[in-house]
Fold these 2 entries.
Entry 1:
Amino acid sequence: MAELKESTVSSKKVYDGSFLDVRKDIVNLPDGNTSTREWINHPGAACIIPIMSDGRLALIKQYRYPVKSIMIELPAGKLDEGEKPESCALRELEEEIGYLAEKLTFVSKIHPAIGFANEEMWIFLAERLIESQKRTDHDEFVELMPTSIEDAVRMVWNGKITDVKTIIGILWVERLLS
Amino acid sequence: MAELKESTVSSKKVYDGSFLDVRKDIVNLPDGNTSTREWINHPGAACIIPIMSDGRLALIKQYRYPVKSIMIELPAGKLDEGEKPESCALRELEEEIGYLAEKLTFVSKIHPAIGFANEEMWIFLAERLIESQKRTDHDEFVELMPTSIEDAVRMVWNGKITDVKTIIGILWVERLLS
């Protein structure tokens, strides 16, 4: 196999935002030359496929500022420092749509943006949901959109759903539960 | 429907790298409060599903510095300024694996990282490939990995392929060609 690996010569934080941590590294390329790599240091994220008591998916609608659009999504969120993906999944499920899950099953791990971020995302199936007594996160402007698995799959293939974690989660749940 | 939209109060470029363009905006939230949004201004990208003459997919192996791993991927790349997605797809196909495509078909548009980037990615099916006379891009360290559609689909479900564009492209080609 060809040598493909790049090794780090130096690494510098070039922007330290409240949300984004941007790095610029010097790397050695496989042919001995050097190059620069700019990338986002991301804490990782959890994405939840919530199955409601009537079998529908708890999709959400949410405005996503970077793409300036209301997106149809599965609930998801970033890991807090030191937080396990499972704990993050349960926390985000409660914060975003106000449900607890009695059963949480790991489905898959994906990489959303390997060109410019080290983000890993863990996908979980959440079943046996019960309504939480706690208020949901006041910072989240989210609209619940219960959708049958069949309709969700249709929205993947007809291009209504374009968010990658949501596409992959829906095709996973079709495979697991249909 | 609940009001979900956020409107821009101000926008500032906070890091202007050779590769990453980072913005920090002040926004008005639906409830009248203000908040900040940090995001990557991305030119967009094209991803190609190349079908070789024997019916196999031209997957590639490539070292991805942000995730510090050799990833199994479909060829893809960023749009040059003013470049159409179709042109980008054909250019990247030739640069990365040395093929021209006589037939290029738009498949779908996806959003890889809506939490922190405005990236849109156009996926194309590339058929009737012919070898290019031009040398491939010297900056690309890429290993060709011809793979049957069946094996590629297996690697999606068993977790060997974790890159989102590649997962979605493979499940599309399974649907279109199997």
Entry 2:
Amino acid sequence: MCLTSASTPSLVDRLRSGDARALARAISIVENRRPEAVALLKTLFPSTGHARVLGLTGAPGAGKSTLVDQIAKHYRKENQTVGIIAVDPTSPYTGGAILGDRIRMQDHYSDPGIFIRSMATRGSLGGLARTTADVATVLDASGRDLIMIETVGVGQDEVDIVRLADVTIVILVPGMGDDVQTIKAGIMEIADIFVINKSDREGAERVEREIRSMQSLDIRKDGWTPPIVKTVASDGTGTKELAAAIGNYEAYLKNENLLVQKNVENWRERLIEMLRDAMLEKARARITDGALDRYAVEIAEHKRDPYSLVEEIVSGTAK
Amino acid sequence: MCLTSASTPSLVDRLRSGDARALARAISIVENRRPEAVALLKTLFPSTGHARVLGLTGAPGAGKSTLVDQIAKHYRKENQTVGIIAVDPTSPYTGGAILGDRIRMQDHYSDPGIFIRSMATRGSLGGLARTTADVATVLDASGRDLIMIETVGVGQDEVDIVRLADVTIVILVPGMGDDVQTIKAGIMEIADIFVINKSDREGAERVEREIRSMQSLDIRKDGWTPPIVKTVASDGTGTKELAAAIGNYEAYLKNENLLVQKNVENWRERLIEMLRDAMLEKARARITDGALDRYAVEIAEHKRDPYSLVEEIVSGTAK
């Protein structure tokens, strides 16, 4: 399988040597699904699998970005290189990231060891999780030691995104209402580590009690009990303890041989999603936009039933 | 295309005559995607297109269910039959609806003119919107005059679900924090009508001002300015005004010929989703579960790149 773009080989070389501009360009190619994206990913894949991947999720206002910055600084002191993918809450209609790269980049501008990329929610369902995974592949191939994926914990999309991570950290804060807790119902179960951020605020003990009572009801099949770490990200309190908790869980995964198992399960899901996209592309190639418009009108006017039509398109007999 | 189940014809007849048990059974067939589901939907589709479809969305605790009940009672007094699909917030891991059919059914038990069905969030992305659409098709074919789809407004899933509706109602309540408002960013833009429920609480005016200031920034391309209706669903206050607002918007859609246009756009999207599912099924038929497991292991161990593998599966050359 040859590369479709003549400039890709040198891009790959520069990327592997840690060039931040090459990294940014490669990510753009993958994020925008440019024609050369698949060839690039094929080339990069054999160089991946070395980075540790942390997933961090929590409601807006939980202080995720600040905590991610603190964790990044902590590992930078250990000379690890860091890549951050910040998946931002955006309107499915207007697009565009709420947090820009610019604001957060400034802080780390002088340190090439930290690379930050913000990604906006795209309109297409499921597409974001896949794109995030592909961007993580590029970061991994670029030799980053640690990749952090930061998302807002509100829906299935986010659950799919953090599923990519080796270690998933759920961030809660004191003083959020029960409504917010309900929203997070699905997110709570994916936590490998709980963080109570802004833990100097009133109500931190209550949040801790609530997590503990949930844990007493639900024992994980892998036997791990997610620890609760209290932090104040704005002044760095608890960052060391959080890093220790991350290390503990990583050691547990390694000892129990769970990491490979987790990766296999993840790839099983991802393969099906990739297959679905590839097949859809194949199907879309069979119908022109004009035909699609005509079909939609015929169905809306009830002159045609969509269930038979789809079968006809798949079998190549649609008129 | 013949029906795959011998019992389906009589089920269809009973369904069309308004039999609630036949309706419940037909919905189960569609919801669980049983083998006879597609044949059933094909048979039913020509009888659809008569029901009005309302979509209602809002955060947990906004009082959606109570409001939906009040609207149902209102239209029952006008002798319209009502079908309610309540899409419940559930964990993607444990499944199962939080609100059961049972609790809410009791209230309307004696009235066969109201049919309520709760649906749980399924694990698969995008699947819920499609299933909801298919369930609405069944309710429509059963002769219900009004279909209400009630969802929790937190993510792309819900946006896709309410897109099915002719009229989308976004329910807000006073006293929810800014965090919740952020979460709802995408939901705000899909409102044809805003409801401020629990409007006897402090802060209702503030919510109204916030909506107005958002509206002043963003003018809809169809020229409609969503009205704001204040309700207290628990005692029925504002239900009449809400019904009037619904009627106004429906008249507007009819006068401007927007309803057909909305349906065409909706079917364009749905066709692509249905096509994607159908093509995935075709692709899945090409690989056994055993092969999928083996592929996942090979990729997780970095012995194989997934991007090439997917191309090979699609072209039928994967080994």
